[in-house]
Amino acid sequence: MAKAKSIFFCQNCGYESAKWLGKCPACQQWNSFVEEVVSKNASVVPAWQSDGASNTPKTLPEIEPGTEVRIPLQDAELNRVLGGGIVKGGLILIGGEPGIGKSTLMLQLALSLAPKVLYVSGEESEQQIKLRADRIPHKPNDTTFILSETALEKVFTQVNQLKPQVLIIDSIQTLSSAKIESVPGSVAQVRQCAGELMQFAKTTETPVFLVGHITKDGSLAGPKVLEHMVDTVLQFEGDRNLMYRILRTTKNRFGSTSELGIYEMQSEGLRQVANPSEILISQRDAGVSGVAIGASMEGNRTLLIEIQALVSGAAYGTPQRSSTGFDSRRLNMLLAVLEKRTGLKMATHDVFLNMAGGIKVEDPAIDLAVCVAVLSSQHELSINEKVCFAAEVGLGGELRAVNRIDQRIAEAEKLGFDTIYISSYNKGINASKHSIAIKPFGLLKQVFGDLFG
Ligand code: TYD
Ligand code: MG
């Protein structure tokens, strides 16, 4: 016997409660609870006593390996973040702010795949999708199918007829299932639709891509369970006004989460950026002060990033500190280290810091480049454009070793740098292997002395 029951959900985080609450105890959001009707099967037999036919446990050697587990993609960046192509039966969630390019990326993927693909859009009409596809250069193909639909049951009717090898849903928030009464995009609907799509993916071994919206604070809209359900979560990020877009994995059951893909938004869709360092550091004239290049790692990739600092006399009583693409608390820490350990007077100065290209960097190996850029701007001394930096700065003003130093050095060398400053604690570097000059130092002060005399 099915019994209708209502439950209150937090629209922000998916917290469940039997009664309405003004403030969510989980995410502290006010006025976020809505009522959802759920039908629960009030079975009297406890699950452990029920005698349903089921899978039997197997040992690992008994499990048949699937044939051809991954479908490789033409898009090298997407391939990389997915860990080498899409896995059969994989459920992939791709999130990002509106206008970042999720639909463009998915349509490009649909147009480039050789197997039969069904692209379901609940946001755009077939004509609008055609207009978009016309902007994207692609070979004419008859394997990409477009469907404009928001009802889950109707989507499945078409899927069962067409039998696509890849299914793309743009977006999960626009789909709605007739089994649930609440509006599309609500927690219960998102959960229901994603659950059914997951079962479809697993039973038919069809990879499914879900496009998901993002809330104001940058997390994926819908309940957290959505992120638990899917195999892979990709975040598409970047400043909408800048050209570059970064695709990051935040969860991947079939690969590493430290990978990163970079695209450039052009008038004909997204272009893959195979060698990001070249564009991140190409736009500068020699002799500008306040600019330093840091060798950072993103996943398995080295990125040489241009760091720009501007230090100027504080116009108002309290000095301002502002950073784009770099943690502002870390900037404050580095400024304190500079003041204490090198005698630089920062207290009466505004400091602005910017990572070129709208990239967000978390790698501490760019600390040294940040400090050097600040000093360079403070004293109006420019740094030779063939010099780069890779070291973490500690509270004592000491340079700390960073991981994968060989890879960073090799990338700097490849891009034509002639000197790299590193920490003397990075041991085991074979300097004779490289044509780039490697300068190891133990203290920040020594680097400044060597650079500016
Ligand atoms: P879209 O893929 O619609 O974003 P989302 O689905 O994440 O909301 O991307 C829309 C933006 O991309 C829009 O501002 C226009 C821009 N764009 C281009 O610059 N070139 C193109 O070829 C396309 C298709 C879009
Ligand atoms: Mg879209």
Give an overview of the whole structure.
By secondary structure, the chain is of the alpha/beta class. The protein folds into three domains: 1-40; 71-274, 3-Layer(aba) Sandwich (Rossmann fold); 279-452, 2-Layer Sandwich (Ribosomal Protein S5, domain 2), CATH 3.30.230.10. 25% of the residues lie in helices and 28% in strands. Strand 11 and strand 12 form a beta hairpin. It is elongated and about 80 Å long. It binds thymidine-5'-diphosphate (TYD) and magnesium ion. Residues 102-103, 123, 170 line the site of magnesium ion.
Spatial shape:
elongated
Radius of gyration: 26 Å
Oligomeric state, counting identical vs distinct chains: single chain
What is the domain tally? 3
Average of pLDDT: 86
End-to-end distance: 84 Å
Spatial order of the strands forming the largest sheet: 8-7-9-10-6-11-12-13-14
Number of strands: 23
Write the layout of secondary structure elements.
Layout: E1 2-10, E2 16-17, E3 33-41, E4 70-71, H1 76-82, E5 86-87, E6 91-96, H2 102-112, E7 117-121, H3 126-135, E8 144-148, H4 152-162, E9 166-170, H5 187-204, E10 208-212, H6 224-229, E11 232-237, E12 244-252, E13 260-266, E14 269-272, H7 276-280, E15 291-298, E16 301-313, E17 321-324, H8 328-342, E18 349-355, H9 367-378, E19 387-390, E20 392-393, E21 399-400, H10 405-414, E22 419-423, E23 437-441, H11 444-452
Parallel strand pairs: 6-10, 6-11, 7-8, 7-9, 9-10, 15-19, 17-18, 19-22, 22-23
Antiparallel strand pairs: 1-2, 1-3, 4-5, 11-12, 12-13, 13-14, 15-16, 16-18, 20-21
Bound molecules: thymidine-5'-diphosphate (TYD) and magnesium ion (MG).
